[in-house]
Design brief:
This protein is mostly helical and 124 residues long. Helix content is 77%, strand content 0%.
Length: 124
């Protein structure tokens, strides 16, 4: 593990709005586990499934996917994506279908921002 890349990533994530100290407390300061979970999150098929479910008007599946993504984002203290997935989950819970597409776009945009941060820090 290249600690300088990890430190750069953590600085970038904090600047984006993440709470790395909170995540490290939760993960017992294990940076390798954080990185493993972070990259699994970025590659999670639930993002694709969420998008498909919303476009197919399958609110139950969309809720399941959104809720799972929200949970992982919360556990990793990825606050920007946690916030957007929370709004999406609440819109699904309240059957507020007018907000689903814009909120989905927000979630996917935050995911792209997260990907850009990891690339900027030297992770591919």
């Amino acid at each position: 593990m290249d600690i300088s890349k990890v430190n750069k990533l953590f600085v970038e994530l904090e600047a984006w709005g993440c709470n790395i100290d909170e995540a490290m407390d939760r993960l017992l300061d294990d940076k390798e586990i954080f990185l493993r979970f972070l990259f699994q999150f970025i590659e999670d098929e639930k993002f694709v499934e969420l998008e498909q479910a919303i476009h197919e008007n399958n609110r139950e599946k969309a809720f399941e996917c959104g809720h799972a993504l929200k949970g992982v984002a919360g556990n990793l203290s990825l606050k920007p994506i946690y916030y957007t997935t929370s709004l999406l989950v609440e819109a699904l819970r309240n059957e507020d279908t007018n907000k689903l597409i814009p909120l989905l776009e927000d979630v996917l945009e935050k995911k792209e921002e997260l990907c850009a941060i990891t690339k900027k820090a030297g992770f591919v």
